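## Example record

The block below lists the input lines for one assembly entry, exactly as stored, with component labels intact.
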Amino acid sequence: MPKEALFTDLIREHQGLLFKVTSIYTDNKQDQEDLFQEVVYQLWKYFDSFRNESKISTWMYRVGMNTAITHLKRKRRRPDSISIADTVIKETDITKDEIYEERLRLLYRQLKQLNTLDMGLIFLLLEGKRYKEIAEITGLEASNVGTRISRIKKKLKTNMNKL
Amino acid sequence: MELEELQSAWSQMSNELEHQKKLTNEIILNMTKEKYRNKFKTVTAYETLGACVCFCIAMLFLVKFGELDTWYLQLCGILSLSYLIILPILILKALRKIKTLNILKGTYKDNLSHFIKAKNRLLQLQQIGMGVGFLGLFFILPVFSKISSNKNIFQVGLKTEQLVLLSITLIVTAVFCIWAYKGYLRLTKSAQELLKDME
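Predicted structure tokens for the full assembly:
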């Protein structure tokens, strides 16, 4: 199969993953779309260097998150996350589920209050990744990942209890 | 509200996204190409605008060419027209060549070599443009003076204030050329970095 076809299949298959990575690191639809484009471009650039030493999704998370963090450094971060949460709600098209919408808004609000690394760790945890894989994606030690995540969970719980 | 409840909203969103396949192959490939092309968007806009200005002045010179009544004014007219028409076309063509380089086709090495060739051509044209631009002032000015006020400056010469104005124009042009050329260098360097990253 030609390289282009392999690449487009990969992106199509994992577009949900890319959407999620790009939505947690941006504040509005326009910015999310720009970042999505940048991530696709970065994946293409490094496509040849993927060596099958890890799962393809692990590699995609790694490239996606690194690109997003670089993008975030360039942009001034705004704490208001309502706009991007609404974009996600619209994108997922789950209509008339107010509980879902409310939870998602709250989730994004909570995520955006975390620092870049903590936000990435919680994102991967929400994605159902085990500590070992999170360590592989972020480059941290697995034990360090565990310690950090339990600290973030406590922080999130405290924040949510305040609501 | 518990963390688990938030996790369930996330899972619900993930499931929904899993079923969506909105992107087509074309969109994906265009995204990749677009990112590269965007690097040249601003400079192309400025160059196109500059070319339009040059073409308008050339048109004016062409319409009023009959008013150039001596052989040396006619020679200045021809040189001015060549400068105002040929150089912008060459620059826009070189820019187009860089922009349309298909980074999805061929190997990295081929892409880089094509890019460097196109980049060198563009920079060379910019250098020629700047050099000729200075000379250009000396043959555009007599034509402009003849067309606008019917004065042959080869015969009447320049007044002190006109000489001062000419000197100021030369300095401003020099500063502008250096600034624009540095911008080009920065732009092409960053685009080259993009390609180098593909290694």
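DSSP finds nine helices and no strands in chain A. Chain A has a mean pLDDT of 84.
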